[in-house]
């Protein structure tokens, strides 16, 4: 393949591509209808001209037939009058109009056929134009629907990365965080309540243990029938309880401090 052939093919391909991109289906349909209507106007003019020619030929043919009949009568009249020469001239004139009439009849038949053909073509073209208009409206509706669907799909695709969708995602994330904080606060509140009850339970145990310690440190009860010594006659063994009470008080005070620090 030569260089010029390759250049021609490239140029043709680029031109075809540009034409295809420039073609608007809706505009192309409108243009097609306009061209068909122009053809219809021209065809109607052609049919009108053919019919006019047919009418003119038909009139000429009828006039020729009238002349033939007239010269036929003239020939008969001349013979009746005994003028054979005049009758011969009349027949010659009849022959001329007969030949003209024959030619006109042939032309008239051709014109009649042509007019009938043109009329059929006119009816077909009118039917095609009517059908094309119907298809045009249907195709325009389909084009409008396709464009709307394409725009809608473009909007849907654009919404995936648009600021509106990003805003919705941010709001959803904030709602999730807020729900998580609320759940955490509820769990913390529940744990605080449980810890308070645990402290109360621990405190009651300490109180019970304190009461038990107090009870164990109290002196044993004296029997009712035991002889009590006079106050002034105390034995050396009875001087120790004050010292033990001081020890208990010191231990009790230590326990209280421990309880306060808990």
UniProtKB/TrEMBL annotation:
Pfam family, one: PspA_IM30
UniProt keyword annotations, A-Z: Coiled coil
Region Disordered, residue ranges: 217-247
Coiled coil region boundaries: 47-81, 108-149
Composition skew (Low complexity), residue ranges: 230-242
Family to which the UniProt record says this protein belongs: Belongs to the PspA/Vipp/IM30 family.
Name of the protein: Phage shock protein A, PspA
Organism: Anabaenopsis circularis NIES-21
